[in-house]
C-alpha cells in the first residue's frame, strides 16, 4: 500500500479531462434499464436582492469549471453498457445552461406555479449522452426583492453530500463576481476521477474479495411484502405512490438524545430498529414470518476515503452513494410488548447496532464486487433484490428564509424520473430530521410500486413504524440504559453475553 505522502501526486495525475470509471451506483442505475436522462435532483435557493444574471453566470461558470463531475459525458453503445469521460474546463458554457425568467411582482402562489413549470421544463432538457447534466433558471424578482435560483443536476453528477459543496461554492463565486473579483474556489482534495479509478483497483483487492460470501449470503429470499417480484415493464415511476409522515418536535426530541444515549448508538440505529419491529409485526400478522429474517438495501454516503491513503473527498462532487444489503431479524421482537413496556427494547437496539457496525467500510464492497470485479460479478443473481430501500439522511440544517438557503417554494419543484423508468424497489423509505417551528422533527417518505404493493399495506407499515419509533422513545425517555455492546469496547475481546454479565455484576454491587 502506498505511503500517504504518495497520494497527492496520484490525485493530481487523475485531475481534469479523461476517461471516468463509473462508480458502482452508476452501474446499478444502468442495470435498471429504461429511460434515465431525467434521473435528477433539484434545489431552489433564495438569492440576494437584486442579484444580476451576469454575476450568476460567472459564478455558475466557475463552479462548472472547478468540479470535474459536472462536465462528464456519458456514452451508451447499447442498453446497460455505459462509459463516461470528463470534458475539458470550459466545455460547458454557463450562459447556455442558465436561463432567465421574469418573476417581478408575482404573488406567492404565482411564484410557486412558476417554479413548478420551470423545473418541469428544464428537467426535460437534461441529456447525459450530450453532456447536459446541469440546467439552471434565474427567477428575477427585480432589484428590491430576493430572486430565486433553480438548479437541476443529473444524479450521475451529484448526491446529497455534493449539494453541501456546490451551493456554498456558488454563493462564494457569486459574491466574488458581484464585487468585481475573479472567483477563486477552495481546491478539491481528491478529484472525482482519482477516486473512481481507485475504486476499480479496490474491487480487486483481497480485503474486498474476502467479503464475497458476506454479500452473497445477504441476498433476499424472495418477496415478503409484495406477492411478486418487480416487473420493469409494469412497475415504473408512473405507478409509484407516495406517503409522508411527520413526527412532532416533542416526540422527536427523545430520539435525538435519550434513545442514542440509552444504548450508546445513533438515531439511525434506532430508526432502523423501528423498521425491524414494524416489518416483523406485519409479517407475523400476515402469516409471512421467516426464521432467516429479511433483507433491506441501505444507502450510505460511499465516501470511505480512508481506503485511499491521503484521500480527501470533503470537496469532491459526484454520485458516490453506496448501496448494500443487510439481513435483519424478523419476528424476533414483539412490538406490542415493547410498546407496553413488557419487553426490553434495548436488546433489539443493540442487535441492530452491532449488525450495522459489522458492515465493513460502509458496505462499499457490495457494489464493487457486484459491478466492478468481473470475476465476482457473475456470482450475483441479478433477480435477487431486496424489496425495501432504506435511507436515513440525518439532520438537515438548511438555512431557511436566508440568502442562498432553501426557498419557501422548494416544495413545488418538479424534477422526477421519466414515467417509464423502472422502479428499483418495491418500497423506498427515506427518513430525515428537519427543523420545524417547535424544533427538530422526524419526517419519513414512503414511495412504493403501486401495482405490486397495496396502499393499505404501506399505510400499516407507516403507522407501525411511527408507533415503534414512539415506543422506543418512551422506553428510553424514562432514563433506561441498555448498556454496552462489543463495538463499544474495541480494546477488549468480549461478546454480548460477557458484557451483559459484567454489567449485571457491577449493578449488583451498587
Description:
It contains 18 helices and 13 strands. The chain has 510 residues and is of the alpha+beta class. It folds into 2 domains: 4-194, Chloramphenicol Acetyltransferase, CATH 3.30.559; 233-305 and 319-399 and 421-484, 2-Layer Sandwich (Chloramphenicol Acetyltransferase), CATH 3.30.559.30. The strands form 3 sheets. Strands 8-13-12-11-9-10 form a 6-stranded mixed beta sheet. The chain has a 4-stranded mixed beta sheet with strand order 2-7-6-5, sandwiched between helices. Strands 1-4-3 form a 3-stranded antiparallel beta sheet. A hairpin with a 2-residue loop joins strand 3 (72-78) and strand 4.
Predict the CATH topology of the largest domain.
Chloramphenicol Acetyltransferase
CATH class wording of the largest domain: Alpha Beta
**Termini Cα gap:** 50 Å
Radius of gyration: 24 Å
CATH superfamily of the largest domain: Nonribosomal peptide synthetase, condensation domain
- Tally of discrete structural domains: 2
Q: Mean of the pLDDT scores?
A: 89
SS elements, strand count: 13
Assign the CATH architecture of the largest domain. 2-Layer Sandwich
Determine the number of helices (DSSP H or I, runs of at least 4 residues): 18
The biggest sheet, with number of strands, parallel, antiparallel or mixed sense and barrel status, is: 6 strands, mixed
Shape: globular
Query: Approximately how much beta-strand content do the residues carry?
Result: 15-25%
Secondary-structure-based class equals alpha+beta
- Name the quaternary structure: single chain
* Major sheet strand order: 8-13-12-11-9-10
